[in-house]
Amino acid sequence: MRKSFILLLLAILTIGVNAQKLERVEPMFWWAGMHNPKLQLLVHGTDIGSLEVKINYPGVRLAEIHKVENPNYLFLDLEISAEAKAGKFPIVFNKNGKKKLQYVYELKNKEQAQSRIQGVTSKDLIYLLMPDRFANGDRSNDIIKGMRETKLNRDSMYYRHGGDLQGLIDKLDYLKELGITTIWMTPEIENDMPMASYHGYAATDHYKIDPRYGTLELYRTYVNKAHEKGLKVIKDVVHNHMGTGHWLYTDMPMKDWVNQWPAYTQTSYRDEPVMDPHSSGGDKKKMLDGWFVPTMPDFNQKNPYVQNYITQNHIWWIEYAGIDGLRLDTYPYNEPEYMRDWALKLKAEFPTLSIFGETLVNSVAAQAFLPMEVQ
Fold first, then answer.
1. Known catalytic membership, residue 358
2. What is the pLDDT along the chain (375 residues), one digit of tens a residue?
3. How do 182-185 and 126-129 pair as beta strands?
């Protein structure tokens, strides 16, 4: 009995000593030679905030370590010099001088193919499609065990239909024959939501293609094959919100990662208070900070960590896949100052990238206001 008790005590102590667990580092990798030398890594894992961090790689400096409200997070500010070379290096997490965890980070070489990031112009004919509803090229991924929605019914407006990236790749020649020059697809990143997950606008992982569509590698293959056929690619991105199934919502880095209200508050869907310098501050706040719907938490874009996370994610996708343009969902619902900063940073990295936003406005003044925000 005494021996069993001692073994149990040792097991408990061991669990306590090794409680830290590294679950995510985002962006997962980056590139040497980017215009902006600054990179902020989000590190997520059980009690990761109790650890110290060391990086030793030529041209890469760990400028600052940010510990935040939630002990499951660290934010690491890196400075990557112009002399830094592509390669792998360890990010070492220590406690009391002893190595606890390690993540092997990689700086990659940027790709230089001329077909990448071409931009979209008025000469292009854009074809919008919803990947789940377009073509099913791989029936093995129609239902993914463990995801929140597993119903498949092509007779239903709200259930998934089974379309995927392979189906789109298989139909590229068909699209080319139609005379279109550019493909715009609704968001293809993971939407692990219990209902109506087909539309893609309630992200649950910003760095992952929804497995019912395929993989990161298959997405890049799709972009490359489209470019080979003379077709351009627009990626649909969402600054304003995420899904309630997102790991960044179920375990938020800090309370103000999303806009909080004493009780659930929905946006007014009225963009006039954002444009009018004489509008009520309360009306403007409700428009910008109110949630789009209850299942889509509203990002607090005044939070600098949120700003870095979203901006770097979009830069990552552009450089990773070589897409030609971005369509910005729910554009007027975002903080204007942040969107201006976001646009400047993306255009500094990718001068040929095209950007256009979604809005529904009915006056000349409103139409004039929105483009001026990013000038």
1. yes
2. 455 544 444 444 334 444 789 999 999 999 999 999 999 999 999 999 999 999 999 999 999 999 999 999 999 999 999 999 999 999 999 999 899 999 999 999 999 999 999 999 999 999 999 999 999 999 999 999 999 999 999 999 889 999 999 999 999 999 999 999 999 999 999 999 999 999 999 999 999 999 999 999 999 999 999 999 999 999 999 999 999 999 999 999 999 999 999 999 999 999 989 988 899 999 999 999 999 999 999 999 999 999 999 999 999 999 999 999 999 999 999 999 999 999 999 999 999 999 999 888 777 777 777 654 444
3. parallel
| Helix H or strand E encompassing 221 | helix 216-228
Q: Which residue has the tokens 């293959």?
A: 221
**Counting every residue, how long is the chain?**
375
Task: Evaluate whether 257 touches 214 at the Cβ level (below 8 Å).
Answer: no
Side chain identity at residue 31, one-letter code: W
Instruction: List the Cα angle 254/259/264 in 5-degree steps.
Output: 120
Give catalytic status of residue 228 as yes or no: no
Q: Are the CB atoms for 52 and 66 separated by under 8 Å?
A: no
Residues 333 and 267 sit within 8 Å (Cβ to Cβ): yes
Q: Considering the candidates 164, 289, 329, 335, report the single residue annotated as catalytic.
A: 329
Bridge partners (DSSP) listed for residue 45: 22
Q: Which two tokens stand for residue 167?
A: 């189906």
Q: Which residue has the tokens 């590294």?
A: 22
- Cα–Cα nearest to 19, from 53, 52, 49: 49
- Give the gyration radius of the chain's Cα atoms: 22
DSSP 3-state assignment of 357?
strand
Helix 216-228 vs helix 304-321: crossing angle, to nearest 10: 50
Burial of 244 (0-12, 13-18, 19+ CB in 10 A): middle
* DSSP three-state, residue 170: helix
